Amino acid sequence: MNPEVPVPIRLTEIPQDVLDEVREKPWTYTASVFALDGAQPLYRGTATCVAASGKDYLLTAAHVWRELRGDRFALCLDGDRLFMPIYKDLVEPTVFEPTGPSEWGPDLALIKLPAIDAAGIRRVKAFYNLDKRKPESGILVGNDKGLWAVIGVPAEQSIFGKTEAVLKLRLFASVVVSAHQRDGFDYVDLGFYHEGRSDLPQSYGGLSGSGLWQAPITRSDSGVVSWNGQARLEGVAFYQKFTKEKEGVIRCHGRTSIYEQVLRRAAQPRL
Description:
This protein is mainly β.
């Protein structure tokens, strides 16, 4: 008998030290994005560093990309490092923008990076290899598959000054409450519940573009809850919606949107 198999585990049953360990994995691929079109860098959202077909990219939400006005934008890769500026005329964006209600997107951007900028990022971060980790197609909603989470910086819990920023990068663990398919894109809704949770932000603004991650959590026969060290990128967060006064959903694009829409278009020859 296998002593450790995936089973449904409540979030409250996962020890904090396990959550801290899980956080470190997606953190290695995550960057905060700032606009540089004024005197002060302006925080605009989150991006995931990804690689596919020998190329390096930033994966984020389309509305994050569109808010990067001016000829440059910047990445914050670590709290102890200076911003890394990137010239926009050197990148190649593949963008899917909504034509209807914003809650349904599509709201995705895959930004191809020049080799010199990718090399600079690699000094601090890793690029998640989409080719090696391509999952099966379709919507995966089972909460018995492990922990679901988005990682990013909620703006209201961070401090932004003229010369420096104090960013509170957090892993928000949750459960999948619904999944949808619409016009060739898929959507995964993570629930949030604010009742009795003063530690949670009132708004998840700043998490736009954050990666949606799934991490296998297991419980042994003896009751020990543990993580196997793996985390899989499953989507991109782009929209928040309150369904009641103190609860709602963070809507994310899922794996079909990334692998069958964004990557496919990015691979097409440019005119």
